[in-house]
Design goal:
This protein folds into 2 domains: 70 residues, no CATH class; 212 residues, MetI-like fold. It is mainly alpha-helical and 306 residues long. 75% of the residues lie in helices and 0% in strands. The protein is built from 13 helices and no strands.
Length: 306
């Protein structure tokens, strides 16, 4: 296992390098250039800005210089907010916000999704099973901005019990976390139900029941350990997505997270901020997938990585 982890960590370098290179090439190949809309800039100031952001260098030199700024975490100044560093002043404060929102949403998703999925599998074809299955299908189908809008209408305007946006108080976390958790909760519930339907008829489940073990112990200790494997596969990319924040959810609720700044950087053609946000998300995605593989081996002793 240790050798497998070391090899995967070493593979991080070429994988992230490929992602960075592709992102850099696509940014430079996109039509238009930064600062073109700023008509008030004098030619001298524009030349200074282009030199600061390596726009006057060759593509290979600019690629290397920008990569050096990212690898050393030195970062560059934002093109839109030129007095702010994209690493220390923008993504640094924004990531804990997205992380807190993501942890809350992921906790809701895993707990609610597992409970609903297990109940639907154990009490399959009952009225509640059909209700939960329909709700899960609805949660997977509805876009997050629709769910967020519905939550705002009900809890902010009709009931007036929760704020409609902002950040800093626990009340401002509730609606964004619920909206962000809706899709993964529904998906986890469906995965859990289907997986548990395959696990419940297994011989070892009947053996555990015949030994007189309590029903909850049979389901949660013996059944869920194997039924959780498909859910674990999904949690890797899902966790990376929610930890970096939903672009739409953060935009709707005015949350100053990574997703909000990523959207703004794309609108502003802010090259340094776009590249830094892409590399942050990619690093999290690769790390979460590694943790998923380790979790597989921990849950299923039959899995061994040579």
């Amino acid at each position: 296992m240790i050798g497998f982890v070391v090899r995967r960590l070493l593979w991080f370098i070429p994988t992230l390098l490929a992602i960075y290179t592709l992102s850099f090439v696509l940014l430079r190949a996109a039509p238009g250039k930064p600062f073109e809309q700023e008509k008030s800039l004098t030619p001298e100031v524009k030349r200074q800005l282009e030199h600061r952001y390596y726009l006057d260098r060759g593509p290979v030199e600019a690629w290397a210089l920008t990569l050096g700024d990212l690898v050393t975490l030195r970062g560059q100044q934002s093109m839109a907010y030129r007095d702010l560093n994209v690493v220390y002043d923008i993504l640094g404060p924004a990531f804990p916000v997205s992380l807190g929102l993501g942890l809350a949403a992921l906790t809701i998703s895993v707990v609610a999704g597992l409970l609903v999925g297990i109940y639907s599998a154990v009490r399959r074809y009952t009225v509640l099973d059909h209700v939960f299955t329909g709700a899960a299908l609805l949660g997977v189908s509805l876009p997050s901005f629709v769910i967020a809008s519905l939550l705002m209408i009900v809890f902010c305007f009709w009931l007036a019990v929760l704020p409609a946006g902002g950040w800093g108080q626990w009340q401002q976390l509730v609606l964004p976390a619920l909206a962000l958790a809706a899709f993964p909760t529904a998906y986890i519930a469906r995965l859990t139900r289907n997986s548990m339907l395959d696990v419940l008829p297994m011989d070892y489940m009947r053996t555990a029941q015949s030994k007189g073990l309590a029903g909850g112990e049979v389901i949660f200790v013996h059944g869920l350990k194997n039924g959780f494997l498909p859910v674990l596969s999904y949690l890797g990319p899902a966790a990376a997505a929610v930890f970096t924040g939903s672009f739409v959810i953060e935009r709707i609720f005015g949350i100053p997270g990574v997703g909000y700044h990523f959207v703004q950087s794309a609108l502003n053609r802010d090259y340094p901020l776009i590249l830094a946000a892409v590399m942050l998300y990619s690093s999290l995605l690769i790390l979460m997938n590694l943790l998923v593989d380790i979790g597989y081996a921990w849950l299923d002793p039959r899995i061994r990585y040579e």
